[in-house]
Specification:
This protein is mostly helical. The protein is 74% helix and 0% strand. Helix 2 crosses helix 5, helix 4 runs antiparallel to helix 5 and helix 8 runs antiparallel to helix 9. InterPro entries: ADT_euk_type (IPR002113), MCP_dom_sf (IPR023395), MCP_transmembrane (IPR018108), Mitochondrial_Carrier (IPR050567).
Length: 319
C-alpha cells in the first residue's frame, strides 16, 4: 500500500507539472510573446531586408539583375549603405512586432484553451494547428500596415537617392494615409491573411509538438534545456516559412507595386504575372535569405518567450 501511495503521489506530481505548462495565463502569454517578438526582430531584420530586396528587384534578364543572390545583396547593401543599411525600415516593425507577437502568443494560448475542455489531455497536432491559425487571424490587423511601410522603405533604399520618397516610417504612413486613406495603409490585407493563418498554424504546431517530444518522460516541458528550446524554435521558424513564403512573395510585390497596377486583392494578378515572367520558382524568390533568417530569428524568439515566461512565473506566480 505504501508503494502504491507513493506511485499515486508521483502520478499527481507529473500531472501537476504537465498542467503548469498547459495553464499559462493569457496575460503571461501576451507579455512573454512581446519579449520574444523583440528578440526575433533584432536577430532577423537584416536578412528580412535582403529577402524583400530580392523579391522586389526588377524582372530583367538574369545577367542584368541588381542582386544575384542573398550573399551578393548583403555585400552590395553593406558597401553602399553600411551595416545600418541592413536595418532600414526597422522602425515600423519595431513598433509593431512586439505587440504583434504578444497578440500572436495570446491568440495561440486562447485557441488552446478553447480546444482543450479537458486540461488533463494533451492537444492533438491538428488542434495545435488550429490554435496557431487563430493567432494568425489576430495579428493581421497589426502586421499588414507595419509590413506595408517596412517593404516600401526597404525597396526605396535599394533604388538609390533618386528613389527616396519617404523620410522614415512615420512619414511613409502619413503620406500613404493622405494619398488614399486607411485603405492604402492596409493594402495587402487579404494576402497577409492567406500567408499568416496557415503559416502560424504550422509555426506553433511544430514548436509545441517538438517541445513535448523532446521532453523526457516524467519531466515538465517547462524544464526543457536552452539548446532544445533553440532547436524547437528554429525548426518551427523553418516550418512557418515553408508554408508562408509563396503568399509572402505575392504580398510583398503587391504592397510595393504602384497603385492601380493590380486589381482587387492582387492575388490573381500578381500570381499570373510572376508565373508568366519567372515560372513557379518565383514563388520561392529570396528563399535563401528567408531560411537563413528563419532558424536563428525564431530560435531567439522562443528563447526570449520562455525566459520571459520563467521570470513572470517567478515574479508573479498568481497571474
Amino acid at each position: 500500500m505504501g508503494e502504491l501511495g507513493e506511485l499515486g503521489e508521483l502520478g499527481e506530481l507529473e500531472l501537476l507539472q504537465g498542467n503548469q505548462e498547459k495553464h499559462i495565463s493569457l496575460l503571461k502569454n501576451f507579455v512573454s510573446g512581446g519579449v520574444g517578438g523583440a528578440c526575433l526582430l533584432f536577430v532577423g531584420h537584416p536578412l528580412d531586408t535582403i529577402k524583400v530586396r530580392l523579391q522586389t528587384q526588377p524582372r530583367v534578364p538574369s545577367q542584368d539583375v541588381l542582386y544575384k543572390g542573398a550573399y551578393d545583396c548583403f555585400l552590395k547593401t553593406v558597401s553602399k549603405e553600411g551595416l545600418l543599411g541592413l536595418y532600414k525600415g526597422m522602425g515600423a516593425p519595431l513598433a509593431s512586432v512586439a505587440p504583434m507577437m504578444a497578440i500572436s502568443f495570446f491568440g495561440f494560448g486562447l485557441g488552446k484553451q478553447l480546444l482543450q475542455p479537458d486540461s488533463t489531455k494533451t492537444l492533438m497536432p491538428t488542434q495545435l494547428f488550429l490554435s496557431g491559425c487563430l493567432a494568425g487571424v489576430f495579428t493581421t490587423v497589426i502586421v499588414c500596415p507595419g509590413e506595408r511601410v517596412k517593404c516600401l522603405l526597404q525597396v526605396q533604399a535599394s533604388g538609390g537617392q533618386q528613389a527616396v520618397r519617404y523620410a522614415g516610417p512615420l512619414d511613409c504612413a502619413l503620406k500613404l494615409y493622405k494619398t488614399q486613406g486607411i485603405r492604402s495603409i492596409y493594402k495587402g490585407t487579404t494576402l497577409t491573411l492567406i500567408r499568416d493563418v496557415p503559416s502560424n498554424g504550422a509555426y506553433f504546431m511544430a514548436y509545441d509538438f517538438l517541445k513535448h517530444k523532446m521532453t523526457a518522460e516524467g519531466e515538465s516541458v517547462s524544464q526543457l534545456s536552452t539548446p532544445k528550446i533553440l532547436l524547437c524554435g528554429g525548426i518551427a521558424g523553418i516550418c512557418n516559412w515553408i508554408v508562408g513564403l509563396p503568399p509572402d512573395v505575392l504580398k510583398t510585390n503587391f504592397q510595393t507595386a504602384p497603385d492601380g497596377r493590380y486589381r482587387g486583392t492582387g492575388l490573381v494578378d500578381v500570381l499570373r504575372e510572376l508565373l508568366r515572367d519567372e515560372g513557379p520558382r518565383a514563388l520561392y524568390k529570396g528563399s535563401n535569405a528567408v531560411f537563413l533568417r528563419a532558424f536563428p530569428a525564431n530560435a531567439a524568439c522562443f528563447l526570449g518567450y520562455e525566459l520571459a515566461l520563467e521570470c513572470l512565473n517567478w515574479l508573479a506566480p498568481t497571474w
